[in-house]
UniProtKB/TrEMBL annotation:
InterPro entries, A to Z: GPCR_Rhodpsn, GPCR_Rhodpsn_7TM
Residue spans crossing the bilayer: 35-59, 71-93, 122-145, 190-217, 229-252
Residues covered by the G-protein coupled receptors family 1 profile domain: 1-249
Localization of this protein: Membrane
Annotated protein name in UniProt: G-protein coupled receptors family 1 profile domain-containing protein
Example of a GO cellular component annotation carried by this entry: plasma membrane
Membrane topology (UniProt): Multi-pass membrane protein
Keyword set includes Lyase: no
One of the Pfam families matching this protein, by short name: 7tm_1
Keyword annotations: G-protein coupled receptor, Membrane, Receptor, Transducer, Transmembrane, Transmembrane helix
Molecular function terms, GO-annotated: G protein-coupled receptor activity
Coarse class of the protein's main subcellular location: membrane
Length: 284
């Protein structure tokens, strides 16, 4: 749900790019930006909690498993955290007007309170970068690395036992040509998925956080200017992650693909009888 809500900001960006100015007023400047950051935090920390759940299930299977009630409580905590941590965005995002070529252009941007002693913007951007990127990336990398190590050790243990159990060359060849090859294919697939999860998070979320830091120093130096197309490109990467997540977490899941495969229809528009039977059988 967080992914879907996060992408609702795309039409707003399209309107601003077409009109060249902010036409939605001060209320939507506060509200829409606030909700975008809420969904962003919810998306990021949901992915982080998923990695924690996989870490517990695979690396420490004897520990307490996450029950349904606990999962609901965790989701509620994630959303409460997202709502509270994004409050500064609702408070400090305002509409500013600029005169350009005898016309007035309005933008929805961060307007921090002026202070000579405390740099509020620096504190907030630093906390945003840590809580929204550095900490989740560290947790993701640690958990999936431990999952990879556990998986790889179990794979070597199984292969060692099969080699010892094989009494002659023929048994070893049969074992290698059948079960071992299938397990090797699954092994490399799991490794690819784990690497893909971390890489996607790093590559698709890093640009927008760099943009947040860039906006902080925009105009402070003559050689550094934050152009609008740079910010839009970074935002597109973040929105793209919301589109990629369903494919990564659902469609590459083997059980999901096995269950959805029988839903394919024949030329007559009806499911194949043998596929339907296998589907109902697996469902039972």
């Amino acid at each position: 749900m967080a992914d879907l809500l996060f992408t609702t900001g795309c039409p707003v960006i399209a309107v601003v790019r077409i009109t060249g100015t902010w036409v939605l007023g001060a209320f939507f400047c506060h509200t829409l930006v606030y909700l975008e950051f809420v969904c962003m935090f919810a998306v990021i920390w949901t992915m982080t909690v998923i990695s924690i759940d996989r870490f517990i299930c695979i690396v420490k299977p004897n520990n307490c498993r996450i029950s349904l009630k606990m999962a609901i409580a965790i989701v509620i905590v994630i959303w409460l955290f997202a709502f509270t941590s994004s409050i500064p965005m609702a408070a400090f995002f305002n509409v500013k007007s600029f005169s350009v070529d005898n016309s007035t252009i309005k933008i929805c941007t961060l307007v921090w309170p002026q202070s000579t002693t405390v740099h509020v913007s620096v504190i907030f951007v630093s906390c945003l970068f840590l809580i929204g990127f550095v900490v989740p990336l560290s947790i993701l990398s640690h958990n999936y690395y431990r999952v990879f190590r556990t998986f790889w050790k179990s794979k070597k243990t199984i292969h060692r036992k099969e080699s010892r159990a094989s009494q002659n060359v023929e048994d070893l060849i049969k074992c290698t040509s059948s079960g071992t090859k299938r397990r090797s294919a699954r092994s490399y697939r799991v490794i690819r998925i784990l690497v893909l999860l971390v890489l996607l998070f790093f590559l698709m979320w890093l640009p927008i956080f760099i943009a947040f830091i860039g906006v902080q120093y925009d105009g402070s130096y003559e050689y550094f200017k934050m152009h609008s197309w740079m910010l839009m490109t970074c935002a597109y990467f973040a929105f793209g992650n919301a589109c990629v997540n369903p494919f990564v977490y659902v469609f590459i899941n083997e059980r999901f693909r096995l269950n959805i495969l029988p839903c394919r229809k024949t030329r007559n528009g009806q499911p194949k009888s043998e596929e339907l039977g296998s589907f109902t059988g697996s469902a039972s």
